[in-house]
Design brief:
It catalyses: a quinone + NADPH + H(+) = a quinol + NADP(+); a quinone + NADH + H(+) = a quinol + NAD(+). The chain is of the alpha/beta class. It has a single domain, classed as Rossmann fold (3-Layer(aba) Sandwich), CATH 3.40.50. Helices cover about 30% and strands about 15% of the residues.
Length: about 240
Amino acid sequence: MPLPQTDTKKAGAPVQDTRPLSSCQISSPRSSEAASPMAVKVYVVYYSMYGHVAKLADEIKKGATSVEGVEAKIWQVPETLPEEVLGKMGAPPKLDAPIITPQELAEADGILFGFPTRFGMMAAQMKAFFDATGGLWREQSLAGKPAGIFFSTGTQGGGQETTALTTVTQLTHHGMVFVPVGYTFGAKLFDMDKVQGGSPYGAGTFAADGSRWPSEMELEHAFHQGQYFASIAKKLKGSA
């Protein structure tokens, strides 16, 4: 495979908030007016078999669109399993979010990827999608764009952190800027009274046997991640 071309455009670095136990100040909510043509485009791209990740994606989109000057859009990656297999697995019908193509990623100013974990890594459907981005890699079309991740696992030891770490390699080869949520969610991330997914790497949930749905706290974390990520994407675009 030929070497990727160098992109000479360098994105500025986001300003970090050093307060670990209180929520960071984020841009004020947008008005009801239509966004300008120069709006920051945030794509929320996910794969969800049973709907848990899709639920997080909805909250992340809400958080992103709460930032003035930001437009957020939800996309699904293509399914790789046949309907017969999905039926045997008890998977419900897919939601009506549009299916994204690799080329459409280049239109975004920032991208949040969401997926369930499979053996400590992203699900095969999301990996297949990343494998199809070779053309974008060759041109380094995604270089400098901020990226974040969110996820779902069955258990507390199901790989929420290892999945994040193994996903960073995909972003690195594209030259993307990984934007973890850190501890900007505040003290709620330290709440040990309830089982809750998510980490400094991104929002998350525990699905257990599939019957557990994202809790109120996990949904708040997802909303915050969308809001925080959108504010960083906005700063990066403004400094370009």
